[in-house]
Every structure is written in C-alpha cells, then in structure tokens.
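ARCHIVE CARD
Drawer: 12
Card no.: 0347
Subject: one protein chain, sequence and derived structure
Cross-reference: see card 0346
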Amino acid sequence: MLSGRRDGVTLYETNSFPIYAQSNLGFKSRGAESLSKASAARAGGAEPQRTVSEPAVASPPAACPDDSAACSRPRGRPQVRPDAETARLVLKAAEQSFAERGYADTTIDEVAKAAGVAKKTVYRLFGGKADLLGGIIRARADTFTMSIKAETDDIPIAQALFEILEEFTRLVLSPEAIAQNRLSMAEALRFPEVAAAFYEHGRLHTTKALADWLAHQSARGLIALDDPFTAASILLSMAADEPLRRTSLGIAAPVFDTKSRKRIATCVSLFLDGCRTPG
C-alpha cells in the first residue's frame, strides 16, 4: 500500500479491488426411461410381458480444446438466476471497470461481458452508467444504514452513538470507498450525474439514516434537537471528513486505529454535551 514520498509527505496508494471471476455453469443431461412391449405368449393364455429398459447412462463429456467456443456454452435449458444475484454480479463487474478504466471509459458492453449477462439485462436492472455507479455506492452505504436500524435502545446513548460513528468511519476509509471518492471528485465536473449519484446514494443516504436515529433519541427524551438532519450532517463530518480528506489525497493510510477511536469519542462528547437533556 505504501508507494513513496513526495515533498516530504508519505504517499499511499489505495485504489485496489478484488478481482471478480465467474465460472461457467455446466448442465448434465439425464437418460430417459423407455418402455417396450414384449410379444404376448400364445400358450397358456399368459398375460403379455413388459420389459423395462435400463436408463441410459450419460457418458462423460469429452474434453474440449481451449479455443472451442462450444465448451463455454451450457447445454440444455439455461438456469434461472434471481435478479438480485444477477444485479450483484453486474455491480461487481461495474465496480471493477470503474476502478480500472474510470467513469468515462467504462462501457455497458464491457460491464455486461464481464458479468456474463446480456447488455439488455444491465439496462433492465439499472439503466445507464450513472445508475450503476449509484448502485455501487448505495450498496456500500446500506451496510451502514442497516447497522443504524439495529436495536440500540438497550444500551447507553453515548455507546450507541460511538458504535454508529465507528461503523461510518470504517466504511468511508475502506479502499473501495476511497477509490469511489477519488473517482467522483475527478469526474464530477465533466459528468454531473457522477456527482449526483455520489451525493444522493452516499452521504445524503447515510445522513438521513442517522437523522432518523437522532430523531428517535429525541422522541425518547434523551436529547433535544430542533433539526436532526443538520445535527447528523455535523456528526458525520466531525467523525470522518478530515481522515477521509487526508486518505483521498494520499497523505495518510486508510486505517482505523486508536487515533480514530479517540477522534470519535471526542465527537460523541462534544455532541452530547451540547444537546443532552438535563437530568
């Protein structure tokens, strides 16, 4: 991850992604049973006898040469794959392409080919490139919003808020999130849809989720807030924006450590001391 120094500042490279690989599915045909009638015995009035042939045994497929296109195609009826699984494969392929080629040079054709689906399937599930980028960002942001929705009423509000901000900071400092942040900053002016997708499915989505949680705590009488959304935006900025900025610029490593925890603890104390109800 360390990639050198520039003007006395240590630089880090974080734009790395896991390689997605898809294997072809094979289909094995079954032999069908066939029934044949034997000749009826003429003597003794015997009933006609029936004989059942043994099921045909499928022979193992012959080895295909490496350059044979037929070997890559499954036989028989295609397996039905749920849209949710197909969407996951498409997003994985799109994320890889955005990381390697950037937004401008990524095409729907390349994404569809890498995901092993038809181009019309990508359009049916997502639409265009901006929708793919939004889907990638939204999927990652949802890991944070789902953690907020978990039941936290049985633990102290300071502990619950610390855990929420820790989850958010870990999310935005992940190598994948850093790469998305760099991509959005680099392409936002040329492609306004990139900026819109990054904000709507990223920070706006997470801020609304935290605002709902703060409103719930206010309804419980634990804090007093007139504007939960603004309070949520301030909290997320205090906890993660400076580490995110340094990491995106390449002058800090994308790590969550003791200093990160101290920063979050300070954020929680400053916030609760300012809005906690007396008593």
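Annotation on reverse: Residues 162 and 265 are 7 Å apart (CA to CA). The two ends are 49 Å apart (CA to CA).
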